Amino acid sequence: MKSIDDINLQDSQATREEIDKEEIVTAETNLQSDINAEDMDGASKKSQTYIPNKSVKYGNIKYVSLAILTIQNAALGLSMRYARTRDVEMFASTAAVVIAEVLKLVICVVLVINESGNIQNGVQTMYTTVILNIKDTLRVCVPSFLYVIQNNLLYVSASNLDAATYQVTYQLKLLTTAFFAVLVLKRRLKKWQWGALGLLVAGVALVHLSSTEKAKSATSDNLHNQSKLLGFGAALAACFISGFAGIYFEKVLKESDISVWMRNVQLSLASIPFGIITHVISSGTITDLFKGFDGFVWYLVVLQAAGGLIVAVVVKYADNILKGFATSVAIIISCIASIYIFDFHLTVQFAAGTVFVIGSIFLYGYVPKKPETRTSLSVMWYWTQDEK
């Protein structure tokens, strides 16, 4: 016969099992209620008209800015190459850099005033940030000087490399930026990002080993003395300067709450004196600043000044994948346009290198989706479903 203790033990076990079943049923009921509530919540949110309108609004800004960035990237490389190979009186690239900085300063001053609400507040903000906080302004002089040198080197590169090769080579700035991010900001790159950098180097190497442009020097005196080695060296130096200056400027931005437009005001104010000094050293005088400037050169200056501002909008509203897409499309446009404008010869080796570079841009900007986290309630629900 069973003892009273055995009977009580069995009763308690049976009672515990019933309680466990009730808890599971209750958990399932609560879970289903939560799901229904979320469905109703989602349905009610979908019924609200202002949310879709808002997403459409920002979506339009995002894609319009990306389209403009794509056109600007492609047009800048092609325009710089064309401007440096025309059979006309040549303008000084150092002068173009100075004028572009002046134009950028004017645009950023207008944007700061717009942020401040009126002219008086804008002027007061700029005076406080630039003059009274002189130590912070001096910190910005480092990237200002570097950007002036970089922009001049890009003109040297565009004068010696065809537009397609120039466009592909300049993507090495991804490699140098990653290098300085690891060195200065102590960032850790993912495995696929290291792979993307290796793919980038291989792609650029293939591009430069391939044949590029027909001998068109007979039609333009400005192509007689071009050197592919000089062009590649200038582009490589510009990439290193761009990488370091970008990381330094990012560090400065993160250490303060000053707006991007105000920082660009500081950059331009410091860049203009550096640019004038560079021009005087290069040409020996300041009086011929506008020598060789015609309508096309002014268009090029505006295009160059607008580039940084367009990137700022894209960074705000888009992501790395879409930005990489814009860069990739710009490279393709440059290659196709070079065939018709500069008698460019597209080889299999060049095409393969370009594909490697485009692939590296997407791979580097790839962000894997985070795995879904399961709560204890969801785990219990899946467990009970398996039991049934």
Structure description:
With 388 residues, this protein is an all-alpha fold. The protein has 14 helices and no strands. It has one domain. 79% of the residues lie in helices and 0% in strands. The longest helix is centred in the first third of the chain and has 44 residues, at 4-47. It comes from Pararge aegeria aegeria. It is found in: Membrane. One of its GO terms (cellular component) is Golgi membrane.
How many beta strands in the DSSP annotation? 0
Number of domains: 1
Largest sheet: none
Using the alpha-carbon principal axes, give the shape. Answer: globular
Strand content: under 5%
Mean pLDDT: 76
Helix content: over 70%
Radius of gyration: 30 Å
- Give the structural class: mainly alpha
Low-confidence region ranges = 1-56, 212-219, 377-388
SS element count, helices? 14
Termini distance? 36 Å
Pattern of helices and strands? HHHHHHHHHHHHHH
Subcellular location: Membrane
Organism: Pararge aegeria aegeria
Pfam family, one: Nuc_sug_transp
Main location: membrane
